[in-house]
Amino acid sequence: MFRQARQLSTTASLFKYPSSSPSSLRHYSFKVFRDVTPLRTLRRELLLSKRTIGLVPTMGALHEGHLSLIRQAASENTDVVVSIFVNPTQFGVNEDLSSYPRTWDADVAKLEDLNSELSDTNGSGRITAILAPTAQTMYPTLPPSSEVDGDGSFVTITPLAKKLEGASRPVFFRGVATVCMKLFNIVGADRVYFGQKDVQQTVVIKRMVKDFHIDTDVRIGPTTREDDGLAMSSRNVYLGGRRRAVGLALYKALKAAEGSYESGMLSRADILDAANGITRQVLSEQQSLSETERALFEVDYISLADPDTLDELDVVDPAKGAILSGALKMAPLEKTNSGEDCGLGDGKVPVRLIDNLILKPVN
Ligand code: PAF
């Protein structure tokens, strides 16, 4: 996947890599690491120079949400490490590992543009390194297993990992916690950055850092949204126009529930009825359309949960607030029209949309 990214010296300031077009060479303003040892050398150098490192873990397919996390990391650290690794162990055996978007050239171009922007920003740090390891580097002993009872060295954070997303994706948070533990150990960052969009992931990572006494500060950046409110996600490229418009129902449903909370309602029924009403209405409108017009979906869950334990709440304690979250499974399009924008994969790839809003504590 990242065949062109080979490790060079850690001391040079400009780095050349063969691009995916074999005839040209690329100059990067950051170092690209495939292996652990050279990155550790850099980390030691930075530590001795009293510099600070912010780590932004990603699986590539970078979008504005990632860039905004990197900007936050650059504003709080002298040096930013961005990891790009499509982590096999967080995909279930029947999930979309092979079709997950891999966009190395576009990702690197975005990071280069961002570094130019950061160089112009007073007092800001910048992207110093990309860690783009192979699966062999990240899983040096056994091939990474996605089986629920597969062997391997795994980090499990239960019961958090079994709730919400974990209920239908049983290995997901085991994979996330495991790869993040590895990345944290490799990079030794002062701060690690995650997006609010994946709220359960943020709760699992905070718990892991606390329970394993990991010496890093977990920082959460706000969800970056399109103008109409759709949460940015690497998976949105699969939606196409029709599914994108219908998938917005999730955000609208969460906003309606948030409105109920903000108007003073605290009971689960009152808050979630507002959200469920919206998804039911949108689904029934779609079901009444023809196969060439509609986009069907299933609501996996709409949850109202405690911010620390993710336990479902019957009543929100206004002093604590809550996490309102949901997941929709957008089905493949049944029939497409010629010339229609159906997204990457021609509308055939099922897309899981997740989103959340934090119901803030009220004093
Ligand atoms: O949020 C993601 O992109 C991934 O779950 C992460 C944190 C990079 C781990 O693979």
From TrEMBL:
The pathway is: Cofactor biosynthesis; (R)-pantothenate biosynthesis; (R)-pantothenate from (R)-pantoate and beta-alanine: step 1/1
Coiled-coil segments: none
Q: Which domain of life is it from?
A: Eukaryota
EC top class, in one word? ligase
Give me the reactions it catalyses.
Answer: (R)-pantoate + beta-alanine + ATP = (R)-pantothenate + AMP + diphosphate + H(+)
Protein name (database record): Pantoate--beta-alanine ligase
One MF annotation (Gene Ontology) recorded for this entry: pantoate-beta-alanine ligase activity
Keywords annotated in UniProt: ATP-binding, Ligase, Nucleotide-binding, Pantothenate biosynthesis
Q: Which organism is it from?
A: Aspergillus mulundensis
Family per UniProt? Belongs to the pantothenate synthetase family.
What InterPro entries does the record tag this protein with?
Answer: Pantoate_ligase, Pantoate_ligase_C, Rossmann-like_a/b/a_fold
State a single Pfam family of this protein: Pantoate_ligase
Q: Which GO annotations describe the biological process of this protein?
A: pantothenate biosynthetic process
Q: Name the SUPFAM superfamilies on file.
A: Nucleotidylyl transferase (SSF52374)
Under Enzyme Commission nomenclature, its number is 6.3.2.1
